[in-house]
Amino acid sequence: MTKKELDTKDKIIEATIQLIREEMDVNKITVRGIAGKAGVTKSVINYHFDSKDSLIDLAVQSYIRTVISQGDEKLKKIDMKPEERLRTRFKQAAGFLASNPGVSRVSILGDLKNANKYDNSSQSMHSIFSQLKDIYGDERDDIALQIKAQQLLASLQAIFLRANVFKEQTGIDYFNKKERNKLMDIIIDNILK
């Protein structure tokens, strides 16, 4: 692929990310809208990407990866105890899912369908693992902490994806910030025991 083709492809991905940020509902994004934002034709998009869905999946993964990285960086600059940092970051992640359900659903389901060690779920798990390592130090081995990190992440993702069913079963509304934050504390308390 030539540099011009790579630049065009990057421009299309960036335009898709911008539309994702603006729309927050990936179902409302069209190839025509992406083409207009990127300043290319629909045929150029079709040349570079197999489908609108594959383009959106790629853009969502890139967007979420940036959000994860920025969230981690912001918290590193704040002086707080490791457990408080984990709670804060976990609540931020839960809040992002609640505020961006379309994008988040695409990301989580994409990670489940095409799992790899570089996907957003793996990046999130690594972030949680690092925070658990800060809490426990050498008291727990890495495997135990990786399992705890996976339990935290899986709980968050499953509750988000099944929020309506979870509300019916528990009465807890994931999309209510106060209830969600209390739920995140319960989940973390259960894992840290």
Task: Describe the fold and architecture.
- By secondary structure, the chain is mainly α.
- It has two domains: 1-57, Tetracycline Repressor, domain 2; 80-192, no CATH class.
- It is built from ten helices and no strands.
- The protein is globular and about 55 Å long.
- 28% of the residues are buried.
- The mean pLDDT is 91.
Give the topology:
Blueprint: H1 3-23, H2 31-38, H3 42-48, H4 52-76, H5 82-99, H6 101-113, H7 120-136, H8 142-161, H9 163-170, H10 177-192
What's the gist of this structure?
This protein is an all-alpha fold. The protein has helices at residues 3-23, 31-38, 42-48, 52-76, 82-99, 101-113, 120-136, 142-161, 163-170, 177-192.
Would you list the SSEs in sequence order as H and E?
Answer: HHHHHHHHHH
Major beta sheet summary? none
Helix content: over 70%
Number of helices: 10
In terms of DSSP E residues, the strand content is under 5%
Which stretches are low in confidence, meaning pLDDT under 50 for 5 or more residues running? Answer: none
